[in-house]
Design brief:
Length: about 250
């Protein structure tokens, strides 16, 4: 009886590794390093374990297959996703554009400040276009109506800073604004009021200058990493790295 059990265990383990391989191979950057590390530990552990170890391997695989939702709990992944836009998005264009829904975007070489945030989260499996649109449909009165709209518009709603502020606040992500750089963590979101009463948003970087975290944003010259955190009045501070949001975005 023991030999058939061992053969069945070996087949099961091989099947798990085959399912794992494409996910690990496709992952890049920070997420890829994490997934490859976990996969190596899992292979060593289950090859040395008794057949009952397959259950542990299956649990690890479930976490790996969750991919984006597991990775999004790591703030460094959001920062890296934003930093990859530097040199890719090189223009600023706030024109209204029709786009697919969900998963719609303007051409990658251009965009606005909110597109930096939307694209970074989307790299982690979270589609703010869809989430904001669905929340606005469910709670239209909670959102500002400054643009004369009578209903949500998935082409533009997620690209407006005030809408993102309401969305993140409704998710319990709002934190007190501060003039102390130590109060900001990599992956935090910050909003400002620019001259001319213009709203702006960016992602707090993992890099800093003289204790001031840098910011990944697009203020007019494409996505950049700048010393901007305290350059303008701060109107909002948010920390939104939910483990379960990716699943919601895929529904």
């Amino acid at each position: 009886m023991r030999q058939p059990k061992k053969r069945a265990w070996a087949r099961h383990r091989a099947a798990l590794e085959d399912r794992e391989a494409p996910l690990v191979a496709a992952a890049s950057g920070f997420t890829g390093v994490l997934l490859r590390g976990v996969a190596r530990v899992a292979r060593v552990a289950t090859r040395a374990a008794a057949p009952g170890g397959v259950g542990m391997r299956a649990a690890i695989l479930s976490a790996l297959l969750a991919g984006p939702s597991w990775a999004v709990t790591q703030p460094g992944a959001l920062v890296e996703a934003a930093r990859r836009q530097v040199g890719v998005t090189v223009q600023y264009d706030g024109a209204y554009r029709r786009m697919p829904y969900p998963g719609g975007d303007v051409p990658l070489h251009t965009g606005v400040c909110t597109d930096v945030v939307v694209r970074a989260y989307r790299q982690l499996g979270i589609d703010l276009q869809q989430l904001v649109h669905e929340d606005m449909k469910a709670a239209w009165s909670a959102y500002p109506h400054s643009w004369g709209l009578k209903r949500p518009d998935p082409n533009i709603d997620h690209r407006r800073v005030p809408n993102l502020q309401v969305f993140f606040t409704r998710r319990g992500a709002a934190l007190p604004p501060s003039r102390d750089g130590a109060h900001y963590q990599p992956g935090d979101l910050v909003t400002w009021r620019l001259p001319g009463n213009l709203p702006h948003i960016g992602i707090v970087s993992s890099r800093s200058v003289d204790g001031r975290p840098l910011v990944l944003h697009n203020i007019g010259q494409g996505t950049r990493e700048d010393d901007l955190l305290f350059a303008y009045p701060i109107t909002g501070h948010y920390r939104w790295l939910p483990a379960g949001a990716a699943a919601a975005a895929r529904r």
